[in-house]
Amino acid sequence: MIGSMVNFEDINQTTIYIPYSGPDDDSDTPSDIPFPAPPLKERDFLDGHELRLKAYRVAWDKCLTRVQSIVKTLHAPVVSDVAMQVQESYSKVLPGLPYPELPVFCVTNLSGSTSFLNDVSKCLEVDAGVSEGQASTFAVHLHPSDCANVSNGMKAIITGFIERDSGLDQVKHRPATSLANFDINLLVAWYKALKETATYSSAPPKLVLILHDFEQFDPATMQDIFYILRYVPSPFFPYSLISLSCSGKALQLPLVFILLLSTPPIPSYLQTTYPHSTLSLLRITHCVVPSGPKVLEEVLLKTFFDIEFEPCVFIGPAILEYLMDYFTRYNSSIDGLITTLQISYLKHFTSEPMSLLVLETPSVNYFSEADAFSLLDALLTRLLAPSEQSPSSTDASDWQEQSIPSLVKLMDETRAQFYVHSLKFRLGFRILLIIQGFMTKQGYKGLNWDEGSTGSGLCDVMVDALRGNLTRDVKYLGTMVKKFKVQQLHSLLNELHPYFRDMPTHVRVQVEAAWTKIIFLRNTLPKNDDDASTAGKEAVSEFGEWLIEYLNDLILPLDESLLWDVWYTGNSTFPSEVINPSVRASLLSGLLRPLEFGDSSLAENDAQQDTETLWQLPDTNILFRRYLDSGKMINIYDWLESFQAVLDTQKEELKNVGDVPAKGSRSKIGANGKGKKKQVSADEDDEEKWKVEVQARFMRALHELDYLGFIKHTGRKPDHVMRTVFNVTD
Amino acid sequence: MDDLPTATPSRRKRKGKASDNLENNVVSNIIVQTSFDAYFTYTSARPQTSTNVFSHLVLPLSTEEYADAIENMKGPKHIEPRLISESSRMTLFSRFLCELNEGFNILCYGFGSKRRVLNQFAVDYCAKAGHVVVCNGFQPDFSMKDLLNSIENVPGIQALELSSTTIEKQTQRIYDYFAQSTQKRHLYIIIHNVDAAPIRTLKAKSLLSLLALNPRIHIIASIDHINAPLLWSTSEASTRKPAAQESIPTRGFAWLWHDLTTLASYDFELAFTDKSSISGAHGGGARRKTDTMLAQNATAMSETAALHILASVTQKAKKLFALLGAKQLESIEDAGEGVAVNDLQQFGLGYDILFNAARDNFVATNDTALRSLLGEFRDHGLVLSAQGASSGGEILWIPLRKERLSSVIKSIQSEQ
Q1: I want to staple A240 with a disulfide (CB 3.0 to 4.6 A). Which of A233, A532, A676, A713 is the partner?
Q2: What Cα–Cα distance (Å) separates residue A358 from each residue in A260, A417, A574, A638?
Q3: Average pLDDT rounded to a whole number, residues B36-59
Q4: A599 and B82: CB-CB below 8 Å?
């Protein structure tokens, strides 16, 4: 209906507004949010997508909150450090400086996380609220586009402060009577007024300028801005030559700069780009936000390998490997990491029909409906299939006894079982880490994990663990433990003991036996080697044996659990083209092999006679083939000729295929003696028309290739163009 | 006619041979040839092209001729990619909308105009979920102001205070409006060709990056240029929308990329390009309309343009034109086949001869009268003149190709 109202074909309209046309209710989100259906329809049922969407939301929220809190904890020390220094920036000024300096904080944030900045600003605000004696801060955010030139930059800074809600009455500025909004004196006047109000009279606020993507700012402009702002010296500065020289500005501004950099701290961008004359105006402090592979490790370890946190869906080794690769090679930002995890979750819930069972089993009523049969059937098959170990344990009678309520119950049990399995897995992994850590502390090489062949250390171990490849490592560690001295075992037990002790109760239930064993051993083990050498040694070796067995029991790959694919992505791969696409390859294959995008049956036919079918392709594709045949420079006229040759073939072929009656009529005219002359002139006309058509089609295709960026007009030779793409066959 | 197809293979063979030699030379040194190697191989070889000059040999097409030819063209059937067939379109669209609602923006790439598909998505899906603004970035006179003004059609935005009318403030107001947690309806912005020149500017990009990360604004954009992905740095492209509890507006795009190869032609996108110029579509086809008009080749006089000029001149002038045209046609006929018909100057008429003919036909009795009649045509480029090489006198000609000229003259004669 709207489609008929909106005219998309109007060539003069640059924008088209389409009003909302959905149901007129007040719900926050549209009621019918489409959630893509999985490709396998067999195991789906009607309300499946709603349940999956619900499950996805819960699962992802849980995971996201966890990741965010981990990142926050990682940032916390730097955040509080920066906030504190900003607050104190004008209280500890070195006495005896020849001129005042602007406090500048260079924050190197390689992970590009925006949450860092939020934390900083929150911290600044909170400080202001908590201790009344301290000055609050006013922050203005500047982006590179705000500071294209000095007057724009100054304007952005000044209006940024003035237009905020500071408790001052908003005054209507009349251009004739007020200062220009890029005049620093305007800011001075505003600040003076602010200081005189009751709220700020005791503690005037600091004016914080936060410059995002500082590398993108024009250095020449920024130099001038620093220079201008420096001429308004600080109120806390003990004496100032400058304030003497410009006595009109007796009042001064406590400005603080926070520069956000995404380049490494050494060599600092600021120091390499700005001249000494500018740097001498600034008092620079460097801060580095944690980033790099360690952050990835920390996030993964605490999200998917932590006994205190249980994600609803576990990430499989294939996705984990992709994540590591993407993080280390392309984009080591926290945002990229979170996006990758979210896409994995989204993929899991949209491609796996049974993922609706992740959180809870739908009620009996759901299953009773007819369209739930296929799901029910699939579930039954999976849950009651004879296991490989004991094929005879189930028989047909079991199947008949199953009712829907019992199936729901069985499903709930399976879920609980999976999570217990995963808990044990995580626990085993953690114990392994503790022992490995202990080994390194003792000065042994241990498992050599930090120097993994790919260089990502612990992440590789996580992948190995998920694949079930850790048996050898466990055995090696166990053997090492067996060779411990009694004293060393004591130390190890002392490390393990607090870990077990501090576990949440529901976890400890699962490891009661091991916990008892550790306590028992810790109490009964001789204090040192001399007391009872054989008894001690036996105990050590027995503990080593037990450890191997115990850890191997714990670290079982998650896909050995029943119905694991509901809660675990297993070996399914990450849809990498969504965040790291090959735009070039896609464009080229669209140009080279358009038929393969069409119906598969058609493509097969054409694959056999690939070279013969150039004329069957659309014009742009033909022209592109000829483009590939040419050298670096292309003569447009020759290009047209070669294009025309293909079109001539095309014309012939098309005539042969469908135009039989037309041929007949033509021969009739030919037989008529009188019509002969007419036909000649008609042919000439046709010829002329055909030439124009070829030329038009050539121009169209040429323009399309130009539009796609394949042509460069150099003007070096008359009517030649240059290729921009070479060697596309690889 | 028949010999043409055979002519091409030989041409191809020659070319193929040249590149074979090239490859043979290279193979000895390079184990696996990469694109870089290919570039240097091509660059190191002397480009061998013929001396044919397109603009000398081919008359540029007028807009009418172009439109007519494209309309009547008989090419192979259009290929409909599987991806956008009716059945898979639904899946694709629901996936798009789901991802948009999950806080991402969508960027479609691949060969072919994505306009129709995205417009359908706008009408069938987005309009049912919120307000929609579709913008044609490929249009030469598109500006960010248009986009912002269009968004302000959303009821309620204009009620918010606007301190100044700069686009920054306008964008900020839109951002603020949709950042309100009470705001129920989301905004979907469809941008055709986000890689077009007007949106590529630093300013436009920065404004768009602010809107793109608003939790209630969603962007679906398309790109066509092969190097378009270079527009965004990795961090820009991957910055996520701020979480609900975060207060600082961030900038970035949160793109998710989707291959949307439609194989459709770019006719609509290239509607404003100059069809007579080989570089008409350069710069993304986004040249200013006025530029296009100025750049129109002066020699490309169309039939309608000629008729318009002729309709406004006196009977005498028309007669003069018919006279000159007839002479020109005659000399073209005399030249016969085999002569390059595109260089019209060679068929021009000497001023003296024209003057004599005009006097004989009672069109102009003296030099001044003839010059004043010609002046009108010269001003509009309907008659061109140059100093003749051999005779030294002035040569006049009409820049219309044979068949166009004859039809113009026919229509003058039918009027009289």
Answers
A1: A233
A2: 41, 13, 20, 64
A3: 80
A4: yes
